[in-house]
Amino acid sequence: MKRRIIALAVCVVMCLSLFSVSALAARDTSLEESMARDLKTLGLFKGVSDTDFDLNRAPTRIEALVMLIRLLGKEEEALSNAWRHPFTDVPGWADRYVGYAYRMGITNGISETQYGSGNASAAQYLTFVLRALYYSDKDGRDFTWDKPFDLAKKVGILPDMVDTNDFWRADVVTVSYAALSAFIKDSKAILADVLIDAKVFTADEFLAIYRGVEIFGSESYRDRYEIKTVHYEWEWDGRRWGYDLPIPTFTVEYYKELERDPSSIRTGYSSYVNDTMDDKYLESLAQVFINTVESYGYDSKDEAVYMAICFVQALEYIPDDKTLEYDYPKYPLETLFDEGGDCEDTSILLASLIRTMGYSCCLVTFKNHMGVGVLGSDDFGGSYYEVDGKKYYFVETTGERWEVGQLPEELKNETAKVWPV
Fold first, then answer.
1. Sheet holding 370-375: strands in order across?
2. Torsion of CA 66, 140, 195, 189, to 10 degrees
3. CA 259, CA 249: separation in Å to the nearest integer?
4. d(CA 199, CA 114)
5. What is the model's pLDDT at position 22?
6. How far is CA 161 from CA 35, 67, 121, in A?
7. 258: three-class secondary structure by DSSP
8. Among 74, 20, 14, which residue's Cα sits nearest to residue 45?
9. 227-420 CATH fold
10. Are 120 and 15 in contact (CB under 8 A)?
11. Contact call for residues 372 and 351 (beta carbons, < 8 A)
């Protein structure tokens, strides 16, 4: 999704520069200058020099394209390769920008060989920004390309201070600045979240600089970056271990607002394991296990899997809300945030951690229970389930000190279903 957001948004910039350079009436752009400085501090915007943003004129198509690439935090990637394009009218300094945008499907020229340097309207720029936020003008689905103003106003990228008639570089700064706190369509994420996730800047840097509430009167975005540091303790190798994991509350709220499909058990809840939004938190935790066992001189990384098992087994058993008519499976980050869950929650978490560490595993479901199967050799011993000639040894995730291959007595005569993840 990030690439599509970037690709569509960059087109926005192209339009920016389509304005003429004719002399226009005097206009105070001091506020836009301050916003441009903010964007520059975040690494998103540059002027024609270190001290001159040159906001009192219309941008060229190429300037607009470059500006949006910077806004989306993709300048380094654009400059990293000599991207090819078919246009003969692109100046040398902009060659890689245009080539990157062309390669990513962000832009086309005015002909097969000409990129063009005409003017763009406010409607064109807003259309591209809306597309960057995942709105569609195809067949008038969300808006039409020549009339984006109502939707742009609704989503917060068209503040009253923007001049849609004489659209300057100053207006591009305003629209771009407002877009940082605009929500991606059908998502709780804003554009700033995408850039933070891409490590263009940190949440702290954004909060220290961004003044969307003060300038535009937009809704507060500060609570979304509140962090809860969760402390975990578990036993492994005869020792007591502890770890603190910082988790953004907004990310957890995003997961909790996702609709649960009662039929997801039919696919073994594999979609919860394979979700990627919480990968960086699982990778951080998995690396703790790997680094710990290596630091204690263990030759086999299998010990990291054992530590992950002990970690999950030490979480609190928290049953589902009894008012629900079906199980409420949690995504891994929810279980980590809540410091526990029921059998499917801890099984989903453990399978996600094992998978993150590069080991093969599966989910094992019974009539009223779930566990994990971890790929192992014959010397593991205990209960296992065979899939495509490979043995997956059962792991109980609720309660401590369950060994790999140790199946609860009440499950020994039950039929199990195995779901590879």
1. 384-387, 390-395, 370-375, 361-365, 417-420
2. 170
3. 18
4. 35
5. 40
6. 13, 20, 16
7. coil
8. 74
9. C8orf32 fold (3.10.620)
10. yes
11. yes
Provide the residue count of the chain: 421
Q: How many Cβ atoms from other residues are within 10 Å of residue 387's Cβ? A: 15
For 73, 99, 142, 194, the CA distances from 198, given in Å and listed in that order, are 8, 22, 27, 6
Are 307 and 395 contacting, i.e. CB atoms less than 8 angstroms apart?
no
DSSP string, 189-203: -BHHHHHHHTTSS-H
Structure tokens at 264: 């997801």
Instruction: Give the start-to-end residue ranges of the domains of the chain.
Output: 2-222, 227-420
Give, in order, the Cα–Cα distances in Å from 282 to each of 11, 196, 249, 352, 354.
35, 18, 16, 7, 10
Cβ neighbours of residue 411 closer than 8 Å, sequence gap 6 or more: 366, 369
Gyration radius of the chain over CA positions: 26
Going from the first residue of the chain to its last (421 residues), give the mean pLDDT of each consecutive group of 10, the final group possibly shorter. 45 39 66 95 86 89 82 87 94 94 83 87 84 86 94 95 95 94 87 85 90 82 82 94 91 84 70 87 94 86 92 94 71 96 96 95 93 88 91 95 94 92 86
Residue type, 106: I
d(CA 103, CA 377): 47
8 Å CB contact between 300 and 290: no
Report which residue type is found at 219. Answer: E
Q: What angle do CA 271, 367, 325 make, to 5 degrees?
A: 70
Coil, strand, or helix at residue 390? strand
For residue 97, give both structure tokens.
Answer: 């920008």
Count the neighbouring beta carbons within 10 Å of the beta carbon of residue 390: 15
DSSP codes joined into one string, 350-384: HHHHHHHTT--EEEEE-SS-EEEEEE--GGG-S-E
Decide: helix, strand or coil at residue 155. helix
DSSP label at residue 323: T
